[in-house]
Design goal:
By secondary structure, the protein is α/β, with parallel strands linked by helices. It is built from twelve helices and twelve strands. The chain binds nicotinamide-adenine-dinucleotide and 2'deoxy-thymidine-5'-diphospho-alpha-D-glucose. Nicotinamide-adenine-dinucleotide binds next to helix 1, helix 4, strand 5 and strand 7.
Amino acid sequence: MHFFIMHTILITGGAGFIGSHLTRLFVTKYPHYKIVNLDALTYAGNLANLKDIESASNYHFIKGDITDTELLQQLFTQHRFTAVLHCAAESHVDRSITDPLAFVRTNVVGTSSLLLAAREFWKADFTDKLFYHISTDEVYGSLGETGYFYETTPYDPRSPYSASKASSDHFVRAFYHTYGLPVKISNCSNNYGPFHFPEKLIPLSINNIIHNKPLPIYGKGENIRDWLYVEDHARAIDVIFHNGKIGETYNIGGHNEWKNIDLIKELCKQMDSKLNRAPGTSEKLISFVKDRAGHDMRYAIDASKLKTELGWEPSLQFEEGLSKTIDWYLNNKEWLNNVVSGNYAKYYEDQYVKR
Ligand code: NAD
Ligand code: DAU
């Protein structure tokens, strides 16, 4: 994949959290690329995430579903895509526990439909084509106190979400081995940053601290996640897209492990200071609730392949990234309030209040 190629890229799920950062990066950094964002605008998709680039001349939005095979065929024919950056997914573990089939539909059937469309349209000549699949570290399962996830770690998904993502990864590799479709996969750890939907731990907690609501911590809060600032993830995808090897998998992670309870305490400390509240005020909101079913204990990525082969490293220390993130939410309360209303209000009630 060379920078001088005049790519026409289909980004799926570009109105979501990671997709919007990725779309912004590609639209602004590569003005000679044409970017088409296909997004079904589910509860997690929000065009407000892309307001600053919506009128860019190299950007085009299409509302549509990745399981709609006729639409995919029509779009490939019309736009003659040279690459796909596949971000669209059902992404929240808790929702996958209550509605697994929605995850099979989008993550497995949707990914397979996209693969079929790409193969069909590109099969005469795969030169300079790329299907890039964005995946997660959760496919590797759950770690104990030590060790890391490597690209070679056997898959061991344990939630309906991670099972559906693992399945989609397998389909991507199957299309590479069976049909020769040029693919790349990256598996990333937990992201955080602006435009993160407030059903996930960090934005949910920021929103609840603002409104003096309880901070629900599953179990004892001892589960560990490896956090990466979302713009660093988008930068890694850019590097892999252009310089990674076809058929390869790259792990992306922050080398930044936090126990949930320690993370929330750091968040409370920073928010007390930013909101001019007495130290310790927000920590009083911490509320231990029923654990997530099958809650994975620890994720930790070894991203040394990406560093050694392609020179990528995270740019931000966590405390700094968290501070930037909190500032963004405090300065974008209208975005937050709009997102928290409607469908999400009902989900929140079902998840936390009716238990
Ligand atoms: P998100 O839930 O914020 O966004 C998903 C987007 O996909 C939304 O805009 C939604 O409208 C769209 N979408 C959902 N179903 C669709 C369908 N059937 N057709 C078209 N569009 C559809 O998700 P995210 O957190 O930005 O995650 C993006 C990708 O990155 C996912 O594949 C996820 O598995 C992966 N990932 C996420 C994280 C993380 O921490 N958030 C970490 C590693 C990998
Ligand atoms: O590791 C990558 C994955 O990270 C992505 O593939 C997923 O799309 C993304 O949602 C994220 O999954 P997690 O389940 O790790 O993220 P979540 O923010 O839902 O939870 C983070 C941790 O916090 C986890 O241990 C569960 C816990 N938690 C979460 C919520 C929502 C709580 O204790 N309370 C909560 O209310």
